[in-house]
Amino acid sequence: MPLRRIAHLDMDAFFASVELLRYPQLKGLPVVIGGGRREVDEMVRKQYAGLPLGEIPASAFPLLKDYVGRGVITTATYPARQFGVGSAMGMMKAARLCPQAIVLPVDFEEVRRYSRLFKGTIAEIAPVVEDRGVDEVYIDFTDVPGGQREGGRALARLIQRAILEKTGLTCSIGVAPNKLIAKMASEFNKPNGISVLYEADVQAKIWPLPVRKINGIGPKAEVKLAKLHLHTIGDIAAQEREWLVDNFGKSYGAWMHDAAWGRDDRPVVTESEPVSMSRETTFDRDLHAVRDRAELGSIFTDLCKQVASDLQRKGYVGRTIGIKLRYDDFRIATRDHTIDHFIADAKTIRQVAGQCLKRVPLDRRLRLLGVRVGKLAKAGSPEAHALPAVGTPAPVGHRVAEPSPPFEGTLDLF
DNA sequence: TCTGGGGTCCTAGGACCC
DNA sequence: TCTGGGGTCCTAGGACCC
Fold first, then answer.
1. So what CATH class is A208-260?
2. Is A54 (CB) below 7 Å from strand C?
3. 3.30.1490.100, 3.90.950.10, 3.40.50.300, 3.40.50.150: CATH of A276-385
4. What is the mean pLDDT of residues A312-335?
């Protein structure tokens, strides 16, 4: 029996690195990606029209200190990270830490193109790959020829080289007995590093790490653990399983205990079906349900159209339609409603979502509005055509959505 | 200086069925 | 009238991840 060897591969500063391929003159400079200022990027390009992108002077690019807006940072280059700037940080905070950083917008099309490119490169070498977003994958090395050599290091090197050749981008890889440890290991030697761990390394290499390094322990669990004087993964491992279960619940407590001991038997899953599709948007300024009714209405309609077109383009239908809103105080409210047939059209989505909107408090200003469709089935599949069997009770507890005002127009919101 | 957008999974209560 | 237990579906919220 071959040893189970699982790799986690993470592209280094992916969004930023993709931009640096176009603008190599920015290498070594603090650059952050984020916000929605594509116009600025276009402006720079127009101003230097005729000049190859790589020859536009670095001084021509917009700086973080001049940024206005509510965005967050998607990726920061390593020079920018030196100033404490990192992903998910608000632009305004980042501007204080590193005003001289260059800001570039996310180019989703380009990012997706490179995402397909590097994943395709991996799949040619090792076929069992699990997608974990645009810039990350798990790979099962176990049965790949050569996957056991040096505990997986040889194959990791091969993959790194192939990706660099195909894309010009670097990545970091961790190889370990399972996904959980591989994920942590991939962070050990960033950027452009490889780290190989064995079961026996858990005590020395994993236990000293802060609890947050476990994929699945977030900010809330971290705070709760800290209150119980548990700070490192080793601290968790030292607790009785029962004690963890008493404090964190049957499922989460037991999982936490396993995780701290490096136990994880989740398989590498190569294919999965989407559960829901959604679109949401944060407004440039907080909107008032009454005063900004027209504007909200047209945004709402647009979101419904976008979700519908996403569903149609990808070939899905759904029967739970919902809305999400975020108030100015950052609290979130969601409402949804399940209908008895599958749909993917903007009109029905708009109609049912409109009913949902009527059930939510609108006394505060809104910051964000979102529309979601869940309970998905593949369009044209038998399930998608199935209606409730005769005798099946109507969905419990509510009326079927009432007929709603006309779809077109923006004054029929709420 | 407030903190994006796209997801998944879990929990918990109520309705309703057998 | 009072007693169940097990299971599914729906809804709302929340934690977490990339």
1. mainly alpha
2. no
3. 3.30.1490.100
4. 98
